[in-house]
Amino acid sequence: MEVLSDIEIARKNEMAPIEDIASKINLNPEGLIKFGNTIAKIDTDVAVKDSGKVGKLILVTAISPTPAGEGKTTTSVGLNDALNKIGEQSLVCLREPSLGPCFGVKGGAAGGGYAQVVPMDKINLHFTGDFHAITSAHNLLSSMIDNHIYWGNELGIDVRRVVWGRVVDLNDRALRNVNVNLGGVANGYPREDKFDITVASEVMAIFCLSTDLKDLQERLGNIIIGYTKDRKEIRARDINADGAMTTLLKDAFLPNLVQTLEKNPAIIHGGPFANIAHGCNSLVATQTALKLSDYVVTEAGFGADLGAEKFLDIKCRKGDLSPSAITIVATVRALKMHGGMDKKDLKNENIEALKNGLTNLEQHITNMQKYGVPVTVAINQFITDTNDELAVITECCEKLSVKSFNCSHWSDGGAGAEELAKHIVEITKESSKNIKQLYPDEMSLWEKMKTIATEIYGASDIIADQKVRKQFDELQEKYGHYPICVAKTQYSFSTDPNLKGAPKGHVVPIREVRLAAGAEFLVVVCDKIMTMPGLPRVPAANAIHLNDQGDIEGLF
Question: Which terminus of the chain is more solvent-facing, meaning fewer CB atoms within 10 Å of its CB: N or C?
């Protein structure tokens, strides 16, 4: 049997006009701003003006990622198609892909197989230009900071204490640390600077947590760009940057409507990484979706220790959201890797390795159960999975009072996740929609971080040098009510990416803390995690090209 690539499957699909997709969620053409025939932005003022609907929110998360693949986006799309297939009205809400992983190691983020959103090539590349707008807004602020210093520095910004860097939506390790304003007097005052990837920008976080344009501008204005010599905070509004930044983001702020291969509606908007930011699509997209559909399936990035924790403790807190169910995606292949199996051997049955790796799934299940939301497991099936291996996972889940479902949506589309969809409908009938957050607002910043480390990561403690401890103490008085956004490796519960499964008793070292006053959370950077990734030895970009017909090849 010929196995088509994701882009080949997408290319064979005949897409419906975007107006037809919009009609499935009672969106009139007046509420659409079209980008061609198959993509549109949703005018939220028109679209949900009179909607009294409040849909049920389904969170899709996963075990800790491995090179074997898990399929969180694929499962989100498959579950959404399945819900529609069994007669429910459902809409999937996803993050926009970043060019960094698309040209790097991870590939695109439009799902896979027969559970994709389309047009996948446009979605994975420039799409509607949202990420470019975010990059421009961020770098506008950067340029205005150096311009203010050049023209007399009326605010007295200490060039040694400028904390706002620059961003680009590509993996470029050469830009992690740079010197700027070189070349003489006419070019400004030389200083050290840095680049992060766009998805790590505080502008991205603000974009994804703002409720409307007024809130967006207020948050942008609150960004701390640096300090004076006597440590006084200088904010973006102090150099009058917030208005121009908001103007650049005005159109980008509207959610994007596309479709799945089965012609069901999908909203894709915003996309911070969950290992270095809060890892969820935009709040305005989620809130809009809940007013348009009975069910909204959304995802949180990487494993549940990162994306789901931040979704529940940051996004739900900020947006007054409460999911009705949580689905954890697992694969036999990935669990065998967590059990010590080499990637090249994964096609072979290995019950022992699988059982050893199940500790990872178990930890994620027990973590999610702490939030008081019904939990289920979706086993994203591969053709090499054996019945005995699948049975082992089922048995493990049953011991934790959780139902698991073998899902073949990659090969069968929505039909392959119907049983999961039926279960979701059943367990959400009596959902209270009152989640239990991991920590209260009034808990100290240090204790919040310690709670995440011990309750979610299985750590025994957290450590930091005296300088970092002092920062926690200094921030506590004014910002002690903020939630914690952890920047940590996605490959392990610990800060060591090589520790698979579910390590216990480890210590989490904190390297630095960054105040995100606009996003309203404290970023805690652990160990060696980078906010500007590098390209691998053989990047995906090597295989991406145009064929003789002008079609894109190599995207996956």
Answer: N
Q: What is the residue whose two structure tokens read 């949900």?
A: 48
pLDDT category of residue 174 using cuts at 50, 70 and 90? very high
45 neighbors 213 (Cβ within 8 angstroms): no
Distance CA 497, CA 66 (A): 10
* DSSP of 441-454: TTS-HHHHHHHHHH
Phi, psi angle pair for 217, to nearest 5°: -65, -40
Residue 310 maps to a domain: yes
The per-residue pLDDT for range 456-490, each reduced to its tens digit, is 999 999 999 999 999 999 999 999 999 999 999 99
Residues 158 and 280 in one domain: no
Residue 365 to residue 346: CA distance in whole angstroms: 24
Same domain, 391 and 451: no
Which pLDDT value is given to residue 2? 67
Q: Both 198 and 280 in a single domain?
A: no
Does 439 fall in a domain? no
Concatenating the DSSP letter of every residue in 226-253 gives EEETT--EEEGGGGT-HHHHHHHHTTTT
Structure tokens at 380: 């994203």
Q: Do 283 and 175 share a structural domain?
A: no
Indicate whether 165 and 201 sit together in one domain.
yes
Q: What is the pLDDT of residues 26-58, one digit of tens each?
A: 898 889 999 999 999 999 988 777 667 789 999
Looking at residue 5, its amino acid is: S
Active site residues: 72, 74, 95, 106, 274, 302, 382, 410
Q: How far apart are CA 453 and CA 455, in angstroms?
A: 6
Domain that holds residue 514: 445-526
- The span from the CA of 306 to the CA of 194, in Å, is 25
For residues 14 and 25, give the distance between their C-alpha atoms in angstroms, rounded to a whole number: 20
For 214, the token pair is 């007024």
Residues 317 and 374 in one domain: yes
Task: Enumerate residues 6+ apart whose C-beta is below 8 A from 507.
Answer: 459, 460, 461, 462, 463
Contact 85, 417 (CB under 8 A): no
Task: Identify the CA nearest to 132 among candidates 73, 203, 193, 236.
Answer: 203
The answer to whether the CB of 269 falls within 8 A of the CB of 96 is: yes
* 210 shares a domain with 103: no
User: What's the rounded Cα separation, in Å, for the pair 366 and 21?
Assistant: 38
**Closest of 24, 41, 23, 45 to residue 32, by C-alpha:** 41
In angstroms, rounded to a whole number, what is the distance separating the alpha carbons of residues 296 and 90? 6
| CATH code where residue 325 lies | 3.40.50.300
Whether residue 271 sits in one domain with residue 348: yes
Q: Is residue 553 part of a domain?
A: no
Terminal CA-CA length for the chain:
19
Domain count, the chain: 3
CA 536 to chain centre: 21
Q: Which of 249, 270, 305 is the last residue in one of the domains?
A: 249
Q: Would you say 394 and 386 are in contact if contact means Cβ atoms under 8 Å apart? A: no
The verdict on residue 438 lying in a domain is no
- Rounded Cα distance between 420 and 403, Å, is 9
User: What CATH number is associated with residue 212?
Assistant: 3.30.1510.10
> What number of H helices and E strands is found in the chain?
20, 25
